[in-house]
Amino acid sequence: MNRYVYMGIRNWYRIPLWAIDIARRNKWHEKFSFFSQYQMIRKMVLAIIRKGRVTVHVYGKENLPAQSGYILYSNHQGFFDGMALLYALEEPFHFLVMNEMENFSFVRYVMRLLAPVYMDRSSMKDSFRAIQRCAELAKNGENVLIFPEGTLEKQENELLLYKPGAFKAAYMAKVPVVPVVLKNSFCPFERKGFGMCEVEVHIQKPLNYEQYNKKKTTELAEEVMKAAEAVLK
Questions:
Q1: What is the mean pLDDT of residues 52-65?
Q2: What CATH number matches the domain at 3-232, 3.40.1130.10, 3.30.70.1450, 3.50.50.60, 3.40.50.11810?
Q3: pTM for the full predicted model
Q4: Which residue in 90, 185, 204, 214 has its CB near the most CB atoms, within 10 A?
């Protein structure tokens, strides 16, 4: 039995109510605020984690800017990442996600409530459009989360090269960059079985625009990546 099934069994009595609420909110989405949608999904995620033999430790919450309108840059380890981030972050944020997420029926309806920015990574034009949209959201006081590695093709706590292009959104919006490091987030869904997992979310000190505006995107990407490597060692 994998952890997906285990979590489903432990929450069997909640699933019909969640499904009804998600369907209702998708049908009449204009009646609900983004904050309301986010809190509903976050509450669901917290319940699933509690029943899933997963403990999430959050460090550095005090590093989050007091005012919304920033971009979080996190490493990407697995399908539990989104749940770990929703657990850690009380303030709503928009994910930058690949178009492929629309291929998973239940996930598609959940993601729509979180108002993500979709990107077709096979198209340079669409990738740039998505980065522009992220910048626009952040500039208007919304929070955005980007996975600068752009893929999951790696092993456990290893990092792939952070793509400089992902950081263009921060330069466009002139907003704080908040590095986030996920550790052991691959454990819940990428490992077989459903033994106890300890996942860590490290929120690092933000970099204000004045601290990075004279750097190249390659330099900023390298700096944020090195900070993540120090946590994962």
A1: 97
A2: 3.40.1130.10
A3: 0.95
A4: 185
